[in-house]
Backbone:
C-alpha cells in the first residue's frame, strides 16, 4: 500500500486498500466504492460537493 494515499476499509470484509484503488468518481460528484476482495459495491456515495 502507498502510505501517501488515504486508506479505505471495507465495511463488510475489513480489507484495507488505497483510496484510488477502490473509489471511482462519477460525473454527478458522487463516488462508487468497489471492494476487490469481497465484491461489495456501494454506489452514489454523496460527497461534500454532491
Residues:
Amino acid at each position: 500500500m502507498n502510505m501517501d494515499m488515504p486508506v479505505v476499509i471495507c465495511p463488510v470484509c475489513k480489507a484495507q486498500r488505497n483510496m484510488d484503488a477502490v473509489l471511482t468518481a462519477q460525473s454527478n460528484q458522487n463516488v462508487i466504492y468497489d471492494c476487490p476482495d469481497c465484491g461489495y459495491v456501494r454506489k452514489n456515495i454523496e460527497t461534500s460537493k454532491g
Q: What stands out?
A: The chain is about 10% helix and 35% strand. Residues 19-22 form the longest helix (4 residues).
